[in-house]
Amino acid sequence: VSGFARALGDGAIYVAPDHSLSAKSLVGAPVFNDAHQKIGTIDTVMVNATGGEPMVVLSVGDYIGSGPKMVAVPLGHLQLDGKNAMRRAGATKSMLESLPVYSIAGG
User: What pLDDT score was predicted for residue 1?
Assistant: First the structure.
């Protein structure tokens, strides 16, 4: 891997020397809480065209039997946790499941 990003392992999240993260490498990463319980999976990263904070769309479980429930949290609320995962301090699965459903307009 070039100097731009260094691989942290198979399926790993890529971190550039300036500590920026590759959005592509975040997709599919599990999200854990402080108790090391899996509370979601990163589905996509949304970047605001006007420069706001990027949002991470998480799959957090079944939505009334119709598939995965998607919720959005600011990327800044997650921390890199090891080579292949992110951590959301203080979160629980039920807390994330109680957030409003996030849907991407037009898609």
Answer: 36
